[in-house]
Design goal:
single chain; 267 residues; alpha/beta; 7-stranded parallel sheet; 3-stranded antiparallel sheet
């Protein structure tokens, strides 16, 4: 089969399903992993698809699917490994604040066998994941951010009722100078209020978040007690965070993702 024929068939597959994976392409077309990657590289260069970890989605779906849906499949192996490791830091009987984000969600998926947990969150995804467990869940209500499915603006100061000693948070950006940053001021406001009461802050973030700075500061990096991330980190990032080296907990039970060009703002 000629490459152009495969390109057409890949696009047909994506017209009826959300994502194609590299193993799926290898099986369907009886091609090597290198050929599958070349096909996806070509289609991305033509702006027909967007590569994500392990496969691709349609380029013209990127604007229509929610931010969380797209991020769910980005760096997923690393996020799953981070989730497994971070869950080991949670003990039966803990009271936790859990922030929004796809990496935090991977932590939550590994908490279901913990006993007598109490969780405070403003993420609908986190609350929904725990609703069928014996975890006691308190949800901070208010106006919902439709893109990321969490409370964007609380209607009252409902967080004043809670003082969870342990917090697990994600980030849109992690900088040694500016700390943990996100896009939404409402999101960062609630986060800051909850983190000001936590004695133990655990940050979970995949490698792609380090060195990035966004518009709203959630907390300085000096306030973070533990940073759980993947082991495949760039040397310049490790050097930049050398003053906080003892706070890092690296996980390595995942394959490094194929590099995929993403546009970020670096400081």
């Amino acid at each position: 089969m000629q490459p152009n024929e495969r390109y057409d068939l890949i696009m047909q597959m994506l017209s009826s399903q959300d994502m194609v994976t590299i193993p799926e392409l290898m099986r369907t077309f009886d091609i090597s992993i290198e050929t599958a990657r070349r096909d996806l590289n070509y289609l991305e260069k033509e702006k027909l698809i967007k590569k994500v970890y392990g496969g691709a989605i349609l380029f013209n779906r990127i604007g229509s699917i929610s931010g969380v849906s797209q991020r769910m499949v980005e760096n997923i192996a690393e996020k799953e490994a981070i989730g497994r490791k971070c869950a080991e830091l949670v003990h039966d009987g803990d009271t936790l604040f859990l922030g929004p984000g796809t990496t935090v969600l991977q932590v939550v998926k590994n908490l279901k066998n913990k006993k007598n947990l109490t969780v405070v969150t403003y993420s609908l995804y986190v609350a929904t994941e725990l609703i069928s467990t014996d975890t006691t869940v308190y949800f901070i209500g208010g106006r919902i951010n439709n893109k990321d499915a969490h409370t964007e603006q609380a209607l009252d100061r409902s967080w004043d009722f809670f003082c969870p000693p342990k917090a697990i948070i994600g980030a849109s950006g992690v900088s040694s100078k500016y700390g943990v940053t996100d896009f939404e001021p409402g999101d960062s406001y609630i986060m800051r209020e909850m983190l000001s009461r936590a004695a133990n802050i655990i940050l979970v973030a995949d490698n792609s978040k380090f060195g990035l700075v966004h518009s709203c500061i959630s907390c300085p990096i000096s306030d973070v007690n533990r940073i759980v991330t993947g082991a495949h980190q760039k040397e310049d990032i490790l050097q930049d965070f050398s003053n906080y080296a003892q706070r890092f907990l690296f996980v390595d039970d995942y394959p490094p993702a194929d590099p995929s060009p993403v546009s970020y703002t670096h400081l």
